[in-house]
Amino acid sequence: MSFTIGCDPEFFLKNKKSGNLVSAIPFIKGTKYAPEPLKFGGNIQRDNVAVEVATDPAASLNEFIKNVGCTLKEAVKLLPDGHEIVAIPSAKFDIQQLDHPEALAFGCDPDCDAWSVCENCPPRANDPLLRSCGAHIHVGTTGIDENAFLLEFEGKLSMVKIMDCLHGIISTALDNSEEALERKKLYGKAGAHRPKEYGVEYRVLSNYWLKSPITVMMIYHLTQDALAICREKRDAALINEIGEERIKSVINEGLHKDAMEIIEKHLLPLLSTDSIFYFNETLAKMRANDMDFNKEWELNREEISK
Fold first, then answer.
1. 144 with 58: CB under 8 angstroms?
2. 240 burial via Cβ count (<10 Å: 0-12, 13-18, 19+)
3. pLDDT along the chain (306 residues), means of 10
4. Alpha-carbon distance 124 to 152, whole Å?
5. For the chain, where are the alpha helices, taking DSSP H only?
6. Could you tell me the residue range of the domain that residue 199 belongs to?
7. pTM as predicted
8. What CATH number does the domain containing 35 carry?
């Protein structure tokens, strides 16, 4: 099953000594319109007050894991001394960290809603101190393989809806912190995506799934499953079985218990063995609070620089 997959996660920058979050704007040279290339592929930029990295597209699970790991390690080398990146879905910043025009800019090009087939309204935060981090998934095809439906308008919509059923609902079950719910006030509503020439950019998830290679493996296998469901035209049946309105409300409102019910009743019977394995591994690690982002990816700057 051939497809390409990449991501562009955002992280907050933390002063390790004080424990405070700080704006990345003074420290990261790359911007939305001029990202800074990284040594082994991918790039880094500042996005509002966050640090954003982007991986090159991968054509296999091993390449995807390698791309994510190398991109994170190279990005860490560019951080100011005494700082680290943290995978938090949202946070409130001190007002002095937002004293820059870029810190007041939310998004660039608008994204779209696959369910209503229209552009989403630009995000507006009631709390001016709230900032959020996403981790978008880019899924592509060469156009000459079995996933060529990703190049078609209806195919893109179908893929995003099924990613809501799989990635969106499973993420709601796993990523149910207060910070995740706060992020929904800005970004991450069901169906959020951007059509791309190679396929789709799925924009619903926070950066939680970058916390460990285990969670990245889960996302990869869920993407494989979503492609298979669309390719085999099982998408409409799954959506009808769960219910469109329930899918959207579970994701948009962060309904953790409902998400777990859907997983047990509707998703586990159709997911691949690999997806189920990595979902259970992720669930166990999160319940045990055993997922330290910097430790999982070995992002100790002193060790990386050797």
1. no
2. exposed
3. 92 97 96 94 96 97 98 96 96 95 77 95 86 97 91 98 98 95 93 98 97 98 98 98 98 97 98 98 92 93 58
4. 31
5. 61-77, 153-163, 169-174, 178-183, 213-231, 235-242, 244-253, 256-262, 273-287, 293-296, 301-304
6. 4-114+125-294
7. 0.96
8. 3.30.590
